[in-house]
């Protein structure tokens, strides 16, 4: 019986040690969880502060731009002139191809078979205005029509 009681006491001591270890592990987990929560809260605060700073900066920029835009009409006119200059850099306004241009393209392509689109453009003044690239693209998109329309003539 003495041996049984000693075993019970030893088992009880082991259980107490295990409980203590479990308690310390649980406390460590709680500390780690609290640290994670603190980090998350700090990150959220940093994000909120950054967003608030961004809003303040945007408001300041908007106020500055508003003052700049409303200061004088000359500044807006200068802006408009600059933007209109950018649009008109060597670009022709978009327009549809006329029948005369199509016919000139067909005549030029049939007379210049060498494949140099610059030479094809130089054949007619309307094609010169269009440019070699545009003439090439028009021929590629309409060549079946040109060839089919003139085959029966």
TrEMBL record:
- Region Disordered: which residues? 61-94
SUPFAM superfamilies, alphabetically?
Answer: Homeodomain-like
Q: Which CDD domains match?
A: SANT
* Alphabetized SMART domains for the sequence: SANT (SM00717)
List the biased-composition ranges (Basic residues).
Answer: 78-94
Q: Which domain of life is it from?
A: Eukaryota
Q: Locate the Myb-like domain: which residues?
A: 89-143
Q: Which PROSITE patterns match?
A: MYB_LIKE
Specify the protein name. Answer: Myb-like domain-containing protein
Source species, please? Rhizophagus irregularis
């Amino acid at each position: 019986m003495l041996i049984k009681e000693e075993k019970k006491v030893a088992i009880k001591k082991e259980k107490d040690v295990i409980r203590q270890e479990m308690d310390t592990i649980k406390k460590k987990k709680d500390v780690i969880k609290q640290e994670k929560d603190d980090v998350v809260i700090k990150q959220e605060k940093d994000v909120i502060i950054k967003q608030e700073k961004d809003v303040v900066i945007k408001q300041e920029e908007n106020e500055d731009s508003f003052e700049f835009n409303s200061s004088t009409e000359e500044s807006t006119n200068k802006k408009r002139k600059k933007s209109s200059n950018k649009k008109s850099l060597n670009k022709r306004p978009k327009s549809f191809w006329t029948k005369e241009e199509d016919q000139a393209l067909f005549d030029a392509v049939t007379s210049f078979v060498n494949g140099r689109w610059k030479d094809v453009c130089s054949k007619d003044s309307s094609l010169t205005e269009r440019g070699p690239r545009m003439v090439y693209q028009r021929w590629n998109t309409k060549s079946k029509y040109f060839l089919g329309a003139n085959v029966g003539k």
